[in-house]
Write a structure and sequence with these properties.
about 230 residues, alpha/beta, 2 domains, about 50% helix
C-alpha cells in the first residue's frame, strides 16, 4: 500500500477555469493598448495577436515551456511594428499578468486545500504563469513550481522528477492531481506517481490511456477520500 505524503496540484483548469481567465486577460490588455497605444489596435485585432503569439512560438521551439517569454516577445514585436518603443512590452506584460491573476476559484478549491493541508504536504506544478501569491493561494502550498522555472513543461517526465528532488520526496510518495489526461495523469504515472483526474466537464477518458486511480468531478470528494 502506498504511503502518500505529498499532493501535487496542477493549477489552470484544475483550480479555476483557464479559458475564462485568459479571455479576461486578453480583453484587458487589448483595451489597454487601445487607450495608450492605439496604433496597435488599429493594426491588429485580438485574433491577429493570438496568431502572432503562435507564430512566435514556432520561431522559438525551445522556449515553448516559457509562456511569459512568448507573450513578452509578442508585445515586443507589435511595439516595433507599430513604431512604439520596444520597452513598452514590460508595462504591457504587467497589465496582462495582473488580469491573468484575477481568477475566480472553483468553489470547492479552498475548502479542499484547507482540509488536505492538515494531513499532506501540498505542492503546485503548472505549465502556466499564474502567481499564487497574487491570487491569494500561496499559503496553502509548501512549494510552487512552474515550467518556466524548471526549464521544461509537462508532460516531460523530468518535470515531475525535478519537483520530487526539490521537495525531498520519492515519486511513490506523491499524488498528482490535475485536469489533463496526458499532462496530469499519464506523464506523472510514468515516473511512479499516483494520480487523480479532475474531470469537471464530464469528458470521456482517452481510450489509449490507462485509467487514473481516482476520477473526481471536483476536489471535494478527493479531500474526503484521502482524509478518510
Amino acid at each position: 500500500m502506498r504511503h502518500i505524503t505529498t499532493i501535487i496540484f496542477d493549477l489552470d483548469d484544475t483550480l479555476w477555469d483557464l479559458p475564462q481567465v485568459i479571455a479576461h486577460a486578453e480583453n484587458t490588455i487589448y483595451q489597454w493598448f487601445a487607450l495608450h497605444y492605439p496604433t496597435i489596435t488599429q493594426r491588429f485585432d485580438r485574433e491577429d495577436l493570438r496568431r502572432l503569439r503562435n507564430d512566435i512560438g514556432r520561431e522559438f521551439p525551445d522556449m515553448g515551456h516559457d509562456l511569459m517569454f512568448l507573450r513578452e516577445q509578442t508585445y515586443r514585436r507589435i511595439a516595433l511594428e507599430c513604431g512604439y518603443p520596444e520597452s513598452l512590452y514590460k508595462d504591457a506584460f504587467a497589465v496582462f499578468q495582473q488580469a491573468r491573476n484575477e481568477v475566480e476559484l472553483y468553489p470547492d478549491v479552498e475548502p479542499a486545500l484547507h482540509t488536505l493541508g492538515r494531513n499532506y504536504r501540498l505542492l503546485a506544478l503548472s505549465n502556466g504563469n499564474a502567481d499564487l501569491a497574487a491570487i491569494g493561494l500561496d499559503s496553502h502550498f509548501e512549494g510552487i513550481y512552474s515550467a518556466r522555472e524548471l526549464g521544461r513543461a509537462k508532460p516531460d517526465p523530468r518535470v515531475f522528477l525535478a519537483v520530487c528532488q526539490e521537495a525531498g520526496i520519492t515519486p511513490d510518495e506523491a499524488l498528482h492531481v490535475g485536469d489533463d489526461p496526458h499532462n496530469d495523469v499519464a506523464a506523472p504515472r510514468l515516473v511512479g506517481m499516483d494520480t487523480a483526474w479532475v474531470n469537471r466537464r464530464s469528458k470521456s477518458w482517452p481510450a489509449d490511456l490507462a485509467e487514473p486511480r481516482y476520477e473526481v468531478s471536483d476536489l471535494s470528494p478527493l479531500a474526503v477520500m484521502l482524509n478518510a
